[in-house]
């Protein structure tokens, strides 16, 4: 007989390219609600990413190491299958806008059809961070490193700023289907 899924265990899945203050806020709050929280970094070879999965994993680990009930893992394939493979009953997601809600609602219905035992739980973004997205970070990063450096601390954990500036100095490193 298979073990029942743990309803006190949540997995927060996303690209985290890179981990922002908005993600960190959801993780802090999720870690207070659930006994255990895994941050699952999705590797999608068809999606262009700024950071490699190893880089995203190592930055997230640095930022989240003070949280004792949080661990970071990478996965490929379907997020809902990853959540099940962890033996967690909850998929955690954050929502910022009405557009997020629409997209996330559709995704959660698809996930429920695939794995009815996994519940998706949404946390509303903190209003301080609701405007932050990885797309915004990439736009700021493209302003040039001096201007970017002054703004990035409003959006990113300090451990992520230097690796991002290094990436900019080296001319970026977009990974996608061709790389
Ligand atoms: P994905 O590509 O799966 O959307 P992201 O890394 O962009 O991955 O986001 C992961 C999750 O975190 C999603 O549920 C997204 O809505 C949520 N999220 C992203 N940015 C924020 C933010 N600033 N505040 C709260 N939640 C956020």
The strand count comes to 5
User: What structural class do helix, strand and pairing data support?
Assistant: alpha/beta
Major β-sheet annotation: 5 strands, parallel
Ligands present: adenosine-5'-diphosphate
* CATH homology superfamily: HUPs
The H/E string reads EHEHEHEHEHHH
Shape: globular
Question: What is the number of independent domains?
Answer: 1
- pLDDT average, as an integer? 91
Number of helices: 7
Poorly predicted runs: none
| Strand coverage percent | 15-25%
CATH fold descriptor = Rossmann fold
Topology:
Layout: E1 6-14, H1 21-33, E2 36-43, H2 53-64, E3 70-76, H3 79-85, E4 88-95, H4 98-114, E5 119-124, H5 134-141, H6 145-152, H7 158-169
Parallel strand pairs: 1-2, 1-4, 2-3, 4-5
Helix pairs in contact: 2-7, 6-7
The protein binds adenosine-5'-diphosphate.
Residues 14-16, 20, 22-23, 26, 93-96, 100, 125, 129-130, 132-134 line the site of adenosine-5'-diphosphate (ADP).
Describe the overall structure:
This protein is an alpha/beta fold and 179 residues long. It has one domain (6-175): Rossmann fold, CATH 3.40.50. The protein contains 7 helices and 5 strands. The termini are far apart. It binds adenosine-5'-diphosphate.
């Amino acid at each position: 007989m298979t073990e029942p899924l743990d309803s006190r265990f949540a997995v927060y899945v996303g690209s985290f390219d890179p981990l922002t203050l908005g993600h960190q806020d959801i993780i802090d709050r999720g870690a207070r609600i659930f006994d255990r929280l895994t941050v699952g970094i999705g590797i999608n070879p068809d999606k262009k990413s700024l950071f490699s999965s190893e880089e995203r994993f190592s930055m997230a680990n640095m930022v989240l190491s003070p949280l004792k009930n949080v661990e970071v893992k990478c996965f490929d394939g379907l997020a809902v299958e990853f959540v099940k493979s962890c033996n967690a009953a909850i998929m955690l997601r954050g929502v910022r806008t009405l557009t997020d809600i629409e997209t996330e609602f559709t995704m959660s219905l698809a996930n429920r059809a695939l794995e009815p035992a996994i519940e998706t739980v949404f946390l509303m973004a903190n209003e301080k961070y609701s405007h932050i997205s990885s797309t915004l970070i990439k736009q700021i990063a493209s302003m040039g490193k001096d201007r970017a450096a002054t703004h990035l601390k409003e959006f990113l954990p300090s451990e992520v700023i230097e690796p991002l500036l290094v990436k900019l100095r080296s001319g970026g490193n977009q990974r996608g289907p061709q790389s």
